[in-house]
Amino acid sequence: MPRKNRRQSEARRPTSGAQDPSLIDGPDGPVRVRRIPGAGAEKTYRCPGCDLEIQPGTPHVVAWADDGDGGDRRHWHTGCWNARSRRQPGRWR
Hints:
By secondary structure, the chain is mainly beta. It is 5% helix and 29% strand. It contains one helix and six strands, in the order ββββββα. The chain has one helix spanning 78-82, and strands spanning 22-26, 29-36, 45-46, 53-54, 60-65, 74-77. A four-stranded antiparallel β-sheet has the order 1-2-5-6. Strands 3-4 form a two-stranded antiparallel sheet.
């Protein structure tokens, strides 16, 4: 009888919605960061990095202070978030 090679079951990862927030060190203290996939992006936001709109359906990053209540959340383009340390304050373009 032939042998069946089956993969061991893995925990299923969600295919849509925001991923769990992670904690990183920021210049003003700890920052929570959540990556939003395109399927979970339903509204238009303004990126603080480039001052352009993030259109619905665009994957992006949401960041907020760890000690805050989430009222200071900012939605960033992924590229703008990754380049935030290379930009001078007040010179985003």
